[in-house]
Amino acid sequence: MQPINLTSALAAGKDLVAKVQTASGVDVKACYQCGKCSAGCPVAFAMDYTPRQVMRMLQLGLAEETIKSRAIWLCAQCETCSARCPRSLEPAKVMEALRIEAKRAGFEADDEIATFNEKFLRSVASNGRVFEAGLIVGYNMATVQPLKDAGVAPSMLAKGKLKLFPSKIRGRDVINRMFTKAEKMEADNK
Amino acid sequence: MRKVGVFVCHCGSNIAGTVDVEKVAQEAAKFPNVVFATDYKYMCSEPGQQVIKDAIKEHNLDRVVVASCSPRMHEPTFRRCIQTGGLNPYLLEMANIREHCSWVHPDKAKGTVKAIDLVRKAAAKVVKNEPLQKSSINITKRALVIGGGIAGIQVALDIADAGFPVTIVEKEPTIGGRMAQIDKTFPTLDCSACILTPKMVDAAQHPNIEIISYAEVDKVEGYVGNFDITIRKKARSVDMNKCTGCGTCWEKCPTKVDSEFDMQLGKRKAIYTPFPQAVPNKPVIDREHCLKFKTGKCGICEKVCPTGAVDFTMEDELITQQYGAIVVATGFDQFDHSVYGEYGYGKYPDVITGLHFERLVNASGPTMGKIKRPSDHKVPETVVFIKCVGSRDEAKGKTYCSRTCCMYTAKHATLMAEKVKGSKSYIFYMDVRTPGKGYEEFYKRTQGEYGAQYIRGRVSKVYPKGDKLVVRGEDSLLGRPVEIEADMVVLASAMVARSDAGDLARTLGISYDKDNFFTEAHPKLRPVETHTAGVFLAGACQGPKDIPDSVAQAGAAAAKAIGLLAKSQMETEATVSQVDESRCSGCLLCKSICPYKAIDVKIIAERVGGKTVERQVASVNKSLCQGCGACTVACRAGSLNLLGFTNEQILAEVEAVCL
Ligand SMILES: Cc1cc2nc3c(=O)[nH]c(=O)nc-3n(C[C@H](O)[C@H](O)[C@H](O)COP(=O)(O)OP(=O)(O)OC[C@H]3O[C@@H](n4cnc5c(N)ncnc54)[C@H](O)[C@@H]3O)c2cc1C
Ligand code: SF4
Ligand code: SF4
Ligand code: SF4
Ligand code: SF4
Prior knowledge:
The complex is a heterodimer of chains A (190) and B (659). Chain A has 190 residues and is an all-alpha fold. Chain A contains 11 helices and no strands. Chain A has 2 domains: 6-104, Fumarate Reductase Iron-sulfur Protein, Chain B, domain 2, CATH 1.10.1060; 111-182, no CATH class. Chain A has helices spanning 6-24, 36-40, 51-59, 63-67, 71-74, 80-84, 91-104, 111-127, 132-142, 153-158, 172-189. Chain A is globular, with a radius of gyration of 19 Å. In chain B, a hairpin with an 8-residue loop joins strand 13 (256-258) and strand 14. The longest helix of chain B is centred in the N-terminal third of the chain and has 19 residues, at 108-126. Chain B starts with a strand and ends with a helix. The complex binds flavin-adenine dinucleotide and iron/sulfur cluster (4 copies). One iron/sulfur cluster binds at residues 387-388, 391-392, 401-403, 405-406, 431, 433, 492 of chain B.
């Protein structure tokens, strides 16, 4: 394992860490590395860095590594970490801020996650809400695993948890305006 | 015309580095009434003080200004100095040109201007200073100790051994406190009862110690040296003079109640002593549960008592006594972990606290010392200990570290290994804090010889699965979530202040911190005193502490109390508030404002229009007044003046710098 040069890491990561702190409202220095967040996180098992480690990396200025991580994209925003943190920090908000920075810097964990996010947003844009069946089929086709969730579909349909046709909400124009505004904000930010 | 001398100190380079001290002295010499001014390297040194004394003689000085450091440290020094030089010690003023000037200003030119102003102010004030005299009060040579835990017992024994009578007021039916509940004590693992019980007995038999158990302090009046204390003896329902402690009553009593002493893990009767070695070993009736009080029927204890000691008609009794000193030693409670939903809201029977564990391993506890878990009385084989529960947790608990739990958790894991062969203990920690003699070695033995598995990380969740408890944490050294299926979980719950600590503090007029621990007068230099003269602190009521620290602090508090009681008279400060009775309207606004209860009402007789009329005015008790000045601000008639800081003196200062 290569040693980390902390002198240069701290200097190099300073701006990005500051941005993440402002956007999330979390002072990463206050984290005392207890790990309660990571122990309760439902997706930590699949992450490359646990939420605690993400906090630690930010403390040391390794911001670039955090925005390249898979962890920030796997975070389900369930906020269990934030609810249990004994220092009242909100790792969930940090994860969210990191995603925004990652996107701006042009990083995305991998194609699968990017595809999922892309399809999810497109579904919301056209229906005003997510059309689950369409999203799943679209995503599974795009990632070449067409039959992945086919097994659970019948029982979910039977229980009314899944609809065959999209239900569109009223006021889709409002949703559209939100999309337009968000796109403009992003463009201004570039 | 006054004759003021001004003495400017260099304080090495502390002042001289940023203030032109010679210039200050030159300028000071030009101030009104100043007849002499000089500077010197260290004014507080022996030769420095000699400079002052010589100048007093040579220039016939009647007032002195020392321009140096904060009066906190050296005002007494210079007061003594001018006193030996022949002046009343209160004819001194200090200009603080160090903390208020040289240490905070980098610019020498500006710093010098400010220093000159500060001296100008002091010189203007000192002209108005008048000689003041300290007064003295008699001291009642008896001490009150509130709380009979190990700290209170130790204080009482030390003061009693020095020859002064002591009263211990204990809230529970017996003295002993938390230490009586504990099984073995770290780091030596000697049995708690074996070292505590002899001390309890010593206290009971000491000719100078009176133990009033099942009692509380109701009211505190008076002041240092002469406190008037009202003690409420709660109705015990048992006549202490007749009872022999034979125990027939509690054997025969049909009512079983969860025992507080056994942390609700065992039972006691409605007439009970908390544990067999109780001191005094005489029971009380718990009226909330006693059938006689609830239904009017029963009365068995009364019938079986061979001495006729049971008395259902007994009432609370108030007694008032004078005391010279008070030591508070009311100890601590355990944090209530029911705020943690993630640990089961306090509802999983096999998630217990440290004190529960102490009762479970204790040979005289509810399980006779066989460790059995509360739910099904099975012997637990895998036990998880979670540290810092309620400690170091600003979200749901306390910000501080409870200091004892790292060590008692290590002790618990050791006892697990000794008592349940083949068992495995896991300890979740964030840090292991072992800053005592032999403590680190004890921890290392727990980990090595006794095989406790330490895991660095805070547990996020405990949930039941079959008859097990699943504990989820992160091993933060590995960076991976971990799970343990445990038979029992022990929480090292924080040490917190007693729930009634705030009330007691208000009764005593002492201060307490945000967590309701009583505050010491100075965190380093006056650790056992309070801001209220004559009231001292010992043990965990001042902050989390283990037994060695509690006992050490108890000895220190006793020494302070003995120091006070050993004097026949005590000097009080001369800078106290004074009432101009002719101007006082008797509104007594000041009385309600005074934090030291130093102001009382007094009736005076006056001649008005040829007739004698009586009216009320405020009267300041010089021994109680601490010179805070709050009353002088409140007084609408301007009839209160703080000696040494009179309105005239302060206005003179203001004029000197502002006009
Ligand atoms: C689980 C656990 C295990 C521990 N193990 C160890 C160990 O192995 N070794 C060690 O050194 N330390 C240990 N400690 C710490 C130890 O318990 C304390 O250091 C010690 O009890 C403090 O003594 P104290 O006299 O200050 O307080 P306490 O023991 O709490 O005694 C205070 C007394 O004051 C009484 N009181 C309270 N309020 C009032 C009132 N208003 N009026 C009158 N009386 C009142 C109480 O009833 C009590 O009798 C342990 C603590 C815990 C929680
Ligand atoms: S729970 Fe809070 S303090 Fe603990 S490691 Fe996570 S972010 Fe840091
Ligand atoms: S039976 Fe009477 S004498 Fe015996 S312990 Fe009970 S009250 Fe005291
Ligand atoms: S003593 Fe140890 S277990 Fe207790 S609060 Fe401090 S660090 Fe935590
Ligand atoms: S406030 Fe002033 S006028 Fe009123 S009682 Fe106090 S001293 Fe007298």
